[in-house]
Amino acid sequence: MMQDQLPAGLIPTLRIPAMPKDVNNGGSIFGGWVMSYVDIAGSIPAELRAMGRIVTRAVQAFEFKKPVYVGDLVSFYAHVIKEGRTSVTVQVDVYAQRIKQGIVETVLVTDAILIYVAIDEKGHPRPLPPL
Ligand SMILES: CC(C)(COP(=O)(O)OP(=O)(O)OC[C@H]1O[C@@H](n2cnc3c(N)ncnc32)[C@H](O)[C@@H]1OP(=O)(O)O)[C@@H](O)C(=O)NCCC(=O)NCCS
Fold first, then answer.
1. How far is ligand 1, taken at its centre, from the CA of residue 57, in Å?
2. 0.70 cut: is pTM over it?
3. Model confidence band, residue 3 (pLDDT cutoffs 50, 70, 90)
4. Going by C-beta distance under 8 Å and a sequence separation of 6 or more, which residues neighbour residue 60?
5. Which of 11, 24, 58, 128 could form a disulfide with 115 if both were Cys (CB 3.0 to 4.6 A apart)?
C-alpha cells in the first residue's frame, strides 16, 4: 500500500500525541484540536521572521484530509511561503503516525495556509524587519 512520508530532512515544528480527552462524538480527534496546534505551529516561523509579536490575521485554506485517532503521534511542519509588508503567510502540513501490526503508518491528515501580521506595542501592523 502506498503511504505518505514525513518530509525528508525537515524537523517538525511541533509534535504531540493525540489523547482520549481530544476525541469528538464520532471517535476521532476533534477538528478544533488540530486547528489550535496548526495555529501555534504556524506562529513559530512567523514570529521568527517578524522578530517579535504577531497575530493570526486570516486562515486562507484549511483542509482536513484524513482523520486523526487517539494514540496517533501528530507532527506539524510549518514554513513561510510568502512575505508582504507586514504579513507572513505560512503553510502548515500535519502528519499522523500510528503503529499498526508492527509497522509505522504515516498519513498526511491536514494542510493549511495562515496569514500572520507583525504588530507593534499598540497592536498596530508594523513592517517586517529586513532579512
Ligand atoms: C492584525 C491587525 C492588527 C491588522 O490590522 P488591519 O487594519 O487589518 O491591517 P491591514 O489591513 O493593513 O492588513 C495587514 C496585513 O494583513 C494582510 N491581510 C489583511 N486581511 C487579510 C486577509 N483576509 N487575507 C490575507 N491577508 C490579509 C494585508 O494584506 C496586510 O499585509 P501586507 O502589509 O503584508 O500587505 C487587526 O486586523 C487585528 O488586530 N486583528 C485581530 C487579530 C487577532 O486577534 N488574532 C487572533 C484571533 S483569536
1. 5
2. yes
3. confident
4. 89, 113, 114, 115
5. 58
> Would you say the CB of residue 43 lies under 6 angstroms from ligand 1?
no
Ordered structural domains, the chain, with CATH: 14-118 (3.10.129.10)
User: Phi first, then psi: what are they for 47, rounded to 5°?
Assistant: -70, -40
Collapse the DSSP code of 113 into the 3-class scheme (helix H, G, I; strand E, B; otherwise coil) and give the result: strand
Structure confidence by residue, pLDDT tens digits, 77-121: 999 999 999 999 999 999 999 998 999 999 999 999 999 999 999
CA 73 to chain centre: 14
The number of residues making up the chain comes to 131
Tell me if 53 CB under 6 Å of ligand 1.
no
